[in-house]
Amino acid sequence: MLSQLYIENIAVIRQATIDFQQGFHVFTGETGAGKTILISAINAVLGGRTFKEIIRTGETRATVSALFTEIPEELCKKIEVLGYPLEDNQLLVQREIDLSGKGQCRLDGRPATAAMLREVCSLLIDIHGQHDNQELLSAEKHLGFLDSYGAYPLEMAAYPAAYEKMCECAARLHKLQMDESYKLQRMDILQFQIKEIGDAKLSDGEEEQLVEQQKRIRNAERITESLGAVYTLLNGDGEEMRGALEALEEVSTELDTAAKYLTEFEGYSEKLSDAYYMLEELGSRARDTLEDADFDPRQLDAIESRLDTIYKLKKKYGNSIAEILEYFDRINEEYQSLELSDELTARLQRELDEANLALRAAAEALTTRRIVAAAEFSERVEAELKYLDMAGVKFSITRREKSYGPTGADEMEFMICTNTGEEAKPLAKIASGGELARIMLAIKNVLAEKDGIGTIIFDEVDTGVSGRAAQKIGKKLAEVARHRQVICVTHLAPVAACAAHHYRIYKTVEDGRTFTRVEELTRPQRVQELARIMVGENITDSALKSAEEMLES
Asked: What are phi and psi of 24, to 5 degrees?
């Protein structure tokens, strides 16, 4: 359940901490007092879309945090699968919004994204706003409600897989069955490209080797001079100039003599010997390189011609030889596919036929489960409506077959009959605003028994109703709250009177600034607030008496 909500610098809320318990909670207040801001803050911490304009004027950032406790083990395991193991069956969700409109999200102190917040919190809390009632007016949304209720995960997984397979086969077959003249043109182009790349006989890493050879030939004179000088300096010129190796040998001999008498010079001779062998090896390598070097300038023309060929191919087919060779493999495969298109067409047609058979079987299995679920769902919703003072309403779901699509071969539409003896008609055409509110509440209650979500928030779910219907809604919310936490923003006294916990949202003006406050009401305060909701600011004794009786009942 949601145990605590902390809000800081959200619109006119400077700072508010709201503690929640199990059961039914209501928030009431004057129009414009900040009830919408409260819902916006909750939406924000659950990963909803935010704007920098929500930050309180004069502040640079806003913060919302929500603490969930007593999370059932089953939900803890689901959250752990998402990468967030919980301690003590509780979770702290935090959201900061700065003037850039971005901010930071955290789950139990660990960085997260808004998408992660939505994914995790969707398992813990469900918000039903006024606009959600409008979903009932769209028949396309009805199938989603039914599938949320139905317990057929295998069929729900099998059908999309079969549909994707069918679409893939159909796309490949369509690609092969292209216009014949276009196919011939494409084959000519591919044939030219295959010959051009194939004749080049490219090999991966070749360009780097050619560039290295080009550099060596272009700098042949400098290389020869440098390596010749290295050899001469090490070995001498055989006439006047002594080499460094000869000098090192003499130094080593003299050090050996000195070391016989001076211990501090012991060991130097061995180090000089190592240096001697290293320099001797260097000299031999310089000599061998000079003897074996092939710096033929005529090779330069061939190298640069080859590099030019590679450059032109790179401009056409890729940024490197590896990319060109990868492209070569692709067009070879495409050419062969076109060349053997008749054979492939027959094979793909067989695959498509098999995919269609599998799709039909998956669709029929899904439809069968939906029809069974629709009957049960209708019965459950109708029972809820009867309790909500809509006893004469008959609720049903009609199915129409459609061509295969991403969601199946079913169109499901909610139907109602409001008067005995009349035909059922589409819900969107005949339901009033008050009826929509109660029907959505009934659907939410039925779905809540399936999804296991611990907290449900209703934002003015009672819009468009009054009197006995409002009292029924209040009692239904209280009944739902026996099994899960319910939080409701309402403007009706009969609904507020049914709550176990009542909060008032109100505005104050201090030092020329507006502040929104939230306070939990005591019983006497609840009587005053219920009377205000019923008659306005001029509260009479009879209004107070009615409010007292409403609480008692």
From this structure: -100, 120
DSSP string spanning 138-200?
-HHHHHHHHHHH---HHHHHHHHHHHHHHHHHHHHHHHHT--HHHHHHHHHHHHHHHHHHHHH
Q: Is 516 helix (H, G, I), strand (E, B) or coil?
A: strand
Q: In 3D, which of 158, 56, 144, 66 has the Cα closest to residue 99?
A: 56
Q: Of 156, 494, 495, which is closest to residue 486 (Cα–Cα)?
A: 495
The DSSP bridge pattern shows strands 425-426 and 408-417 to be: antiparallel
pLDDT tens-digit readout, 167-199 = 999 998 887 776 667 888 888 999 999 999 999
Q: How confident is the model at residue 341 (pLDDT cuts 50, 70, 90)?
A: confident
Contact 61, 55 (CB under 8 A): yes
> What is the three-class DSSP state of 105?
strand
Number of Cβ within 10 Å of residue 529's Cβ equals 23
Predicted local distance difference test score (pLDDT) of residue 312: 92
227 vs 6: CA distance, rounded Å: 77
Please, are residues 332 and 210 in contact by the beta-carbon 8 Å criterion? no
Measure the CA angle with vertex 475, ends 471 and 480; round to 5°.
145
**What's the average model confidence in pLDDT over 139-154?**
89
344: three-class secondary structure by DSSP: helix
**Digit-coded pLDDT (tens) for 219-228:** 777 877 788 8
For residue 343, the Cα-to-chain-centroid distance in whole angstroms is: 42
pLDDT of 13-23, one tens digit each? Answer: 888 999 999 99
The residues pairing with 510 across neighbouring beta strands, listed in sequence order, are: 513
Long-range CB contacts for residues 145-149, cutoff 8 Å, separation at least 24: 145/377, 145/414, 145/443, 145/447, 146/370, 146/373, 146/374, 146/377, 146/397, 146/412, 147/370, 148/447, 148/450, 148/451, 149/373, 149/376, 149/377, 149/446, 149/447, 149/450
- Helix ranges restricted to H, 340-426: 341-387
Assessment of whether the complete model's pTM goes beyond 0.85: no
Let me know if 533 is exposed, middle or buried by CB neighbors in 10 A (0-12, 13-18, 19+): buried
Q: How many CB atoms lie within 10 A of CB 107?
A: 21
Q: Which tokens belong to 117? A: 């917040």
| 30 close to 22: Cβ distance less than 8 angstroms | no
Using an 8 Å Cβ cutoff, are 462 and 491 in contact?
yes
Cα gap 518→497, rounded to integer Å: 18
